[in-house]
Write a structure and sequence with these properties.
Helix content is about 40%, strand content about 15%. About 45% of the residues are buried. The strands form 2 sheets. It has a 7-stranded parallel β-sheet with strand order 3-2-1-4-5-6-7, with helices on both faces. A 6-stranded parallel β-sheet has the order 10-9-8-11-12-13, with helices on both faces. The chain is of the alpha/beta class. Strand 12, helix 13 (about 310-320) and strand 13 (about 325) form a beta-alpha-beta unit. It has helices spanning about 10-15, 20-25, 35-45, 60-65, 75, 90-95, 100-110, 125-130, 145-155, 200-205, 225-240, 290-295, 310-320, 330, 335-345, 350-365, 370-390, and strands at about 1-5, 30-35, 50, 115, 135-140, 170, 185, 210-215, 245-250, 265, 280-285, 300-305, 325. Helix 2 crosses helix 17, helix 6 packs across helix 9 and helix 7 crosses helix 8.
């Protein structure tokens, strides 16, 4: 079976799909990824075949162009109303539309029997309708955006019937984390993957005696005028003296931190699954991969959302009892608020208990290999009437 993958040009949008793509490839299927230069490095790193299309997109540069000087996203645009979340679809449709003809030509040449895409990639839906091929959209996490976004952009789609829905919508959220009134999806177990790396010695050594290791990962927040926020956050977290604060941060953003407390260690970014097993809690910005990996490891989470789908994800983690969240810049920047939240997560065993329950639910979900086999059967069934009529 030939599987065509189309992804929006953000590596963190592509990475959650990789375990399913590995499962399809391991089952003997041909998998080819179409994407802009932004994601081709991640495609090569995971061992899959890629076809480069178009020019770099650079999502951070796009976000920075729309930010006032020295303001991070949450300061410039506070939490959006839920009914406005679908508007993010306009951004991604405006991006997808100029690529549609090129993607269609490559798809026609490739002849896929199944198309897989992330939930904001709209060329996949149009091409699937044109070629009469099933389309699978793979969510990243709690999904309050993709359904409203499809409805928001449907009128702009070039097909007479508008923008179709995906044939299958895969959902990696454990049952307790899903939105109670959200669009139903097909469960697939989340398998943490954000690249490969050598396991550092400090991971094998574990935290110091009597220490509680707290991981901090803030995605692209430092690149979006987030230096002062990161510095203040680390000082606030470090006020808990028995905590070992471990923050992943690219080297270009470290100078803005200044001198840090002795219980803060800054390390190069590396896959979270390599070291979250040594941690007691996770502090992050609400990114899908970060939150889902922490959930897989059963960690209580302090979520400080900055934009878009960070907010509904933070809401659901708090609602399950597995985390705490603050959604205004004033509260996120208050060291007493943040410090008390970390104390609560580490001191109250109910948070860890709720987090472990989510991890157990996640582990019980169908594996990517199981889902891959089901998708193969579905794709084969979709071709049978056409083959019989030849």
């Amino acid at each position: 079976m030939r599987v065509l993958v189309i992804t929006t040009p953000v590596p963190s949008h592509f990475l959650p799909l990789v375990p399913l793509l590995w499962a399809l490839r391991s089952a003997g299927h041909e998998v080819t990824v179409l994407g802009q230069p932004d994601v081709l490095g991640a495609v090569r790193a995971c061992g899959l075949t890629g076809v480069e299309v178009g020019r770099p997109f650079d999502v951070d540069a796009m976000l920075l162009r729309n930010l006032p000087a020295e303001q991070r996203p949450l300061q410039a645009r506070p939490r959006p109303d839920p009914e406005l979340l679908g508007g993010y679809g306009k951004v991604w449709w405006a991006h997808a539309a100029p690529l549609l003809d090129r993607y269609t030509a490559l798809a026609e040449e490739y002849g896929p029997e199944l198309i897989v895409a992330d939930p904001l990639e709209y060329c996949s839906l149009v091409i699937g309708a044109r070629l009469d091929v099933p389309v699978v959209h793979h969510r990243w996490t709690v999904d309050a955006i993709s359904g409203p976004a499809r409805r928001f952009v449907r009128a702009d789609a070039p097909e007479p019937s508008g923008l179709p829905d995906p044939t299958v919508l895969l959902d990696p959220c454990p049952p307790g984390l899903r939105m109670p009134d959200g669009e139903a999806g097909v469960p697939i177990r989340y398998v943490p993957y954000s690249g490969g790396a050598e396991t550092p010695a400090w991971v094998r050594a574990g935290p110091g005696a009597g220490r509680r290791r707290v991981a901090v990962s803030l995605g692209n927040t430092p690149a979006l005028h987030g230096g002062p926020f990161v510095r203040g956050l680390l000082h606030a977290l470090a006020a808990r003296r028995d905590a070992e604060i471990l923050v992943t941060l690219p080297r270009p953003f470290r100078a803005a931190l200044g001198t840090l407390p002795g219980n803060v260690t800054v390390v190069d970014p590396l896959p979270l699954h390599l070291f979250l097993g040594t941690c007691d809690a996770m502090v992050h910005h609400g990114g899908a991969g970060t939150a889902m990996t922490a959930t897989a490891f059963g960690l209580p989470q302090l979520v400080l959302p900055q934009l878009a789908d960070h907010f509904p994800l933070a809401d659901r983690l708090a609602a399950t009892g597995a985390g705490l969240s603050f959604d205004t810049a004033a509260r996120q920047d208050d060291p007493q608020v943040v410090g008390r939240a970390l104390d609560e997560l580490l001191s109250d065993p109910r948070y860890a208990g709720s987090a472990r329950r989510l991890a157990v639910e996640m582990a019980a979900m169908p594996s990517p290999a199981t889902v891959a086999a089901r998708l193969e059967r579905r794709a084969r069934a979709a071709t049978e009437p056409r083959e019989a009529s030849v």
